[in-house]
Specification:
Glutathione S-transferase Yfyf (Class Pi), Chain A, domain 2, 4-stranded mixed beta sheet, binds glutathione, Glutaredoxin, globular, 2 domains, alpha+beta
Length: about 210
């Protein structure tokens, strides 16, 4: 008898803020339903915050509907074992995740410039100053891992924060393939995550990124 997956991710049919969630579920080998929302006005009023993504967790025998992508990531990290092995690693992962959130907030208006219409000099400054600064911060955090030789941000194994960094870097590479060229440690990190056995086949077959050069 087949049972439906415990987890369901609902988001628009793009990478956007849901791709890190999909990546974390694939990384942990978790079966899930990936629901593409195509009639948003019909669904919006029924969601907790009127926003996507949402995760529905049916593990408790009822539906737990979770909004906010970072809360979803932490819930999955805790329940699927991707939060590190010690309190220190939990905190390191959280520091990295918050740094990614800060960086993403600066990236979104540039990535979706057609929608947010930022001034041209904001876009130029993003690529020449803001992004290099954020990449430097991430490089610094990578070296603070409890197991720096492993090449992940918190400890010996990837955590949810590694997946968040990967997704952030991946979005930049989709827009500008050379954007990590001055940052070999992050470029190697991106390749290391992309080569994880549980992610490689998903990355080869997933929908292409919606992000394009601007
Ligand atoms: N802080 C929220 C932001 C969610 C958000 O801004 N969602 C957008 C799409 S990326 C959305 O639902 N837009 C449609 C709307 O607000 O009606 C998160 O990280 O989940």
């Amino acid at each position: 008898m087949s049972t439906s997956p415990t987890f369901e991710v609902l988001y628009f049919p793009i990478h956007g803020r849901a791709e890190q969630i999909r990546l974390l579920l694939h990384y942990t080998g978790t079966t899930f339903t990936d629901t593409a929302v195509t009639d948003w006005p019909a669904l919006k009023g029924k969601t907790p915050l009127g926003q996507l993504p949402i995760l529905i967790d049916r593990s408790g025998g009822s539906e737990f509907v979770i909004p906010q992508s970072a809360a979803i990531m932490r819930h999955l990290a805790r329940t699927l074992g991707a939060y590190g092995e010690s309190e220190r690693e939990h905190v390191l992962a959280d520091i990295v995740a918050e740094t990614v959130q800060d960086a993403r907030a600066k990236f979104v208006p540039v990535a979706f410039a057609a929608r947010f219409n930022p001034p041209a000099d904001t876009i130029e400054k993003y690529w020449s100053e803001v992004l290099p600064h954020n990449l430097q911060l991430l490089e610094k955090l990578l070296s603070r891992s409890t197991k720096p030789d492993a090449g992940y941000f918190a400890g010996a194994k990837p955590t949810y924060a590694d997946i968040m960094v990967f997704d952030l870097l991946d979005g930049h590479l989709a827009m500008k393939p050379a954007s990590l060229d001055g940052h070999p440690a992050l470029k190697a990190f991106h390749a290391r995550i992309a080569a994880l056995p549980t992610l490689a086949s998903y990355l080869a077959t997933r929908r292409p990124s919606e992000l394009k050069s601007n």
